[in-house]
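Box 3.1 A note on notation
Throughout this textbook, protein chains are presented in two layers. The first layer is the amino acid sequence; the second is a token string describing backbone geometry. Keep the layers aligned when reading.
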Amino acid sequence: MSASGGTKAIVAALGANLAIAVSKFVAFAFSGSSSMLAEGVHSLADSGNQFLLLIGGKRAQREATPQHPFGYGRERYVYAFLVSIVLFSVGGMFAIYEGYEKIKHPHALEHWYWPVGVLVFAIIAEGFSFRTAIKESNELRGQLSWTQFVRRAKAPELPVVLLEDFGALIGLVLALGGVGLALITGDGLWDGIGTVCIGVLLVLIALVLAAETKSLLLGEAAGADVVRQIEKATVDGDTVTRIIHMRTLHLGPEELLIAAKIAVRHDETAAEIATAIDAAEARIRAAVPIARVIYLEPDVYSETEAAKGPDREATPGGPAPRPAGH
């Protein structure tokens, strides 16, 4: 997933959220609906989140330095994690607090047509943003389900926008339901209940985002399909006969580190082995363009060591454990 692949969805979400936030605050000013206030803060928080994603994408493009020799690719994960914190604190907790206050001190809505009109407009605008995010994601997710795409995506921008837009649409429906019930019954309590439901929804989405981005921050290996491509490209069957051990790590969404111990023939010269390693690196980069940092260590495969088991430390000449998904 490229950085540009998510930028269009981020910009669409940003434009929609800014327009929606203004309209919601206007509707709150005229109607006094706590659902509208909570939704206004939600849209404002979402707008700030889109700014954070754009900033993270820009800062991640900086060149590597002696202090950060592998570059700044993971900065995108840092800003995505900040998004989950903002969504949890500013969006979710504020909505729960505001809904609780409205339940304790309910009052009838004034100028009901303002919140209803704004909510209908917001649903249309969020639907446009959500449609853009779905279109951008479909180009990348392949045969993965939506749940698998959100969980496995190495670039955080599109999953974040997808979850935000999905949560926003559900929240708008909850707000419309709360406002509608308050108008039908004449009891502002329903407006408060709708606001609390919005807050709980935002907290749940924020927790999902935090869990996924935390995993990326800690460092995730390449997916099973990518690992298979690397294995196929590394072994030429001539000088490089097999992979003994291999570990991969995403330095960023489009930056992959590969460290492997490869088996070479015992009678090869140093020059032949060096040439074989260079050729293997070229094949890996051709098969997996995001492989930016590659370390290949030659060794002689040992059947005796392999028989001791798959432990990487105990059997330096033994087999590599199969990655998950193989």
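The CA atoms of residues 21 and 43 lie 5 Å apart. The first helix runs from residue 3 to 31.
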